[in-house]
Design a protein that fits this description.
Number of domains: 1
Distance between the termini: 11 Å
Strand order of the largest sheet: 7-8-9-10-11-12
Shape: globular
CATH superfamily: Metal-dependent hydrolases
Largest sheet: 6 strands, parallel
Structural class: alpha/beta
CATH class: Alpha Beta
Length: about 375
Amino acid sequence: MQDIGIISVDDHLVEPPHLWERWLPKKFADRGPRVQRIPPGRDAWVFEDQVNPIMGNAAAIGRSFDPGLQEVTYDEMRPGCYDPVARLADMDAAGMVASLNFPLVPGFSGTVFSTARDLELGLACIRAYNDFMIDEWCAAAPSRYIPMVLVPLWDPALAVAEIQRTAAKGARAIAFTEDPVNQGFPSLHDPRHHWDPVFAAAQDAEMPLCVHMCSSSTVVAWREDRPQMTELTLAHFNSIISCVDWLTSGVFERFDGLKVCFSEGGIGWLPHVIEDCDRNFKNHARWTGSGLTSLPSTLVKDHIFGCFIDDPHGARSVYEIGVDNVMVEVDYPHADSTWPDSEKVLKDQLQGVDEDELVKIFRGNAERIFHFTAPEASSS
């Protein structure tokens, strides 16, 4: 089989310590997020009243011990975690031709800044992050990195302005929350259509919304008596709930060009969710107050895109989901990552998929959805 090359639509970075010091306007420079060494010798990001140590599972690549809850310093991390040039060699080692990266410090959808005490500072931090992402991280290798940006979730007008500003600079995707309500914002079902200006701007800019598992900064399965293993196993329920919200909200009937990518939630659950949404629409739409006029399954092809790292059952379901609606992830540098064996893992799980369809899943769908052209894979 030829080398195809992976476009990973879910990787992560550990923001370099200089980010907000370099990219924030001077007015805010002394109040932006900063790295501080805390006892017993670990690095933490400090912002407003929050002190968040960097946990080992956020920078697990290349580490020989169980990364779990152990805190780490930048000195202990593989440079590819925070350096876009060093990252390229690690991408090559896993057969990755391109990568889309979610943030760490702001939260996967920018929750930290969108719920800041000082929202003027929060907006400045969002803009600084976006400028860094486009003009520093992605500029280090424009053909290898897909620029994804944050938006201020508390104000649709500000979000629209940031979408338009960053689209003009080359942004190709937006990190959006899986559940705005958990962050104190209106839901997708809001009768005032609170989010419609944001969705209209994203559609006009042809920028998909990337909805990462736990991007609402909560795990729906959390309970004090449950061990973390239970939470980890159930975490994809966040994506399931979010997907059903989108399919039953009526948003896609108002915005026929809007695309939503579900990151790190796996895909094995998608056929059941789509089937069950249709069943409930047929049986109960008349009395449940649903505003939908279309079968949910008819909305999937143009709007819903599932992404997976390591999901054998999901890989066996790609024809049920639709080959055009599946993309792949490496999850570098997290503990769930398949790096550096990503290409082998994916090919093993997708055995039986025709080669032209494998190209779509590995890279073609991502190039189409994000309007991005990656280089050809290097011959092995």
